[in-house]
Amino acid sequence: MSKQFRLGGDLAINRLGFGAMRLPSKNGIGGAARDPEAGRAVLRRAVELGVNHIDTADFYFSSDGAVRANTLIREALHPYPPGLVIATKVGPILRPGSFSQGAAADMRGLVEANLESLRVDRLDLVYLRVGGMGVPHGESVADRFEALAALRAEGLIRHLALSNIGIDHLAQARAIAPVAAVQNEFHATQRGDADLLAACEELEIAFVPFSPVGGGGQFEDERLAKVAARHDATVAQVALAWLLAFSPVTLAIPGTGSLSHLEDNMAAGRIILTEEDLADLA
Fold first, then answer.
1. Quick one: what percent of the chain has pLDDT higher than 70?
2. Residues pairing with 70 in the sheet
């Protein structure tokens, strides 16, 4: 199993990365603020442990707006180490207490906000994040993706991606510009997008599941528990190892605001699942 993936064909990244959503708030987007110094410490340690792919968004912030993921990334890691790939998302317009979906005309402002908060001249990877909690089947992404493709042509974005989509959206976007990654919910106990993952595998597009260990909840799955006991590992570690073994295009981006959880997550990269393990988890 390869431990690296060439994102967009030219960015070599480790398949076990880091998701920044839980840095500003323990409860995810809009929750009570965490200690920002703890977040900066987690980011520095993640890079020390080999993370060179960080997934973030300008709308990842605490309920009061005081602690923001992009700010923590900039404060902890800028100037960025060579080879670090930072992926971000645009689409939703979040302010403390409000949520709306941006239109095509909003894409430039959203991209520029990420450029400013991360203090970069070009964003490595930008996802168009669509919908709310569910995939917006039947909703066109063309206008918004065309707006992002124009910003890519200007040199503000290196690679484009899609998040929370159906297979129809992928085809629609690929008719406009290359798609380097797809980010949908997918994990060991939620495999509903297997067809979309298979399409990404065929096209050599990265598939980057959000909620790779169940969104902070506890997996209650006898299969995972059985394999975890066999490896003297946690269920979450086996879930991450399974994602990396399931397809050569899957990338895992577990997120945490805890140094101890970070160490546990990164240790999952050392677990090699056997054929017996994979059969038990099938």
1. 97
2. none
Q: Kindly report, residue by residue over 212-246, the tens digit of the pLDDT.
A: 887 655 567 899 999 999 999 999 999 999 999 99
Cβ-based neighbours of 86, under 8 Å, separated by 6 or more:
54, 56, 73, 80, 118, 120, 123, 124, 125
Query: How many folded domains does the chain comprise?
Result: 1
The size of the chain, in residues, is 282
Asked if the structure places residue 270 within a domain, the reply is: no
CATH number where 23 lies: 3.20.20.100
Spell out the long-range contacts of 133-139 with Cβ–Cβ below 8 A and sequence spacing 24 or more: 134/164, 135/164, 135/165, 135/166, 135/184, 136/164, 137/166, 137/168
Is residue 266 in a domain?
no
pTM of whole model > 0.85? yes
- Is 122 part of a structural domain of the chain? yes
Q: Which domain holds residue 135?
A: 4-220+249-257
**Of the candidates 173, 107, 163, the residue with the CA atom closest to the CA atom of residue 132:** 163
- What's the average model confidence in pLDDT over 56-68? 93
At residue 94, the pLDDT reads 80
Active site residue 60: yes
Phi/psi for 260 (5° steps) reads -65, -40
Which tokens belong to 193? Answer: 């997008």
Q: Which position among 18, 60, 210, 242 bears the catalytic label?
A: 60
Burial tier of 264 (Cβ tally within 10 Å: 0-12, 13-18, 19+): middle
Q: How far apart are CA 23 and CA 70, in angstroms?
A: 10
Q: Which residues contact 43 (CB under 8 A, 6 or more apart)?
A: 18, 20, 23, 54, 72, 73, 76, 77
Q: What is the pLDDT of residue 147?
A: 98
In a domain, 119, yes or no: yes
